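Run log // design_07
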């Protein structure tokens, strides 16, 4: 079960809304947004489909909250890591590990985010993209502090490439999580430093 500090957490501390979003994320990841009905989501959390409308006005609203929550979580956590005291290399390594841990704990959310941005309402899509751009800039600043010769376009491209590497985790579960986290962190840092 995901940790309660991560978005859409499960467990007894999770709110009913969080439980619904976590179940919807799993279903959207497995069957696609359009392949899942409101009754499917209700059944996954033990309530009727129509009862979900007490928590969300629509399936679109669920997706919007889900992807906005992911983006806010990453931006908040990334900003926290980037502002910690320490050497630039240590801060960059912490940022990489933060994203790796998120990807390993939340593979369904990674999949939903990859596949369903186009299914958001215009307002939600604009909000998610704005949050994602701010998260990228956190990485750009951290990378340029660790590799001062790197210009912004290279740093931005390197960050996006590393997101692709780390976000491949839903399709790459050949190792135990601990070993996979170490491997992904080493590969990501190697790719980032290779950008110079």
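design_07 sequence
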């Amino acid at each position: 079960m995901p940790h309660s500090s991560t978005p859409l957490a499960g467990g007894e501390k999770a709110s009913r809304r969080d439980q619904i979003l976590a179940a919807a994320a799993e279903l959207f990841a497995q069957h696609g947004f359009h392949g899942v009905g409101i009754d499917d989501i209700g059944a996954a959390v033990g309530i009727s489909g129509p009862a979900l409308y007490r928590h969300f006005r629509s399936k679109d609203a669920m997706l919007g909250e889900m992807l906005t929550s992911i983006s806010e979580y990453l931006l908040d956590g990334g900003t926290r890591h980037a502002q910690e005291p320490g050497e630039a290399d240590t801060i960059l390594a912490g940022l990489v590990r933060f994203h790796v841990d998120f990807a390993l704990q939340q593979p369904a959310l990674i999949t939903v985010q990859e596949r369903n941005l186009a299914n958001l309402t215009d307002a939600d899509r604009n909000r998610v993209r704005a949050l994602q751009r701010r998260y990228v800039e956190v990485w750009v600043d951290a990378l340029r502090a660790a590799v001062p010769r790197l210009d912004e376009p290279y740093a931005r491209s390197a960050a996006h490439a590393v997101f692709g590497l780390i976000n491949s985790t839903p399709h790459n579960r050949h190792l135990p999580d601990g070993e996979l986290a170490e491997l992904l962190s080493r590969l990501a840092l190697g790719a980032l430093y290779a950008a110079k």
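The first helix runs from residue 16 to 31.
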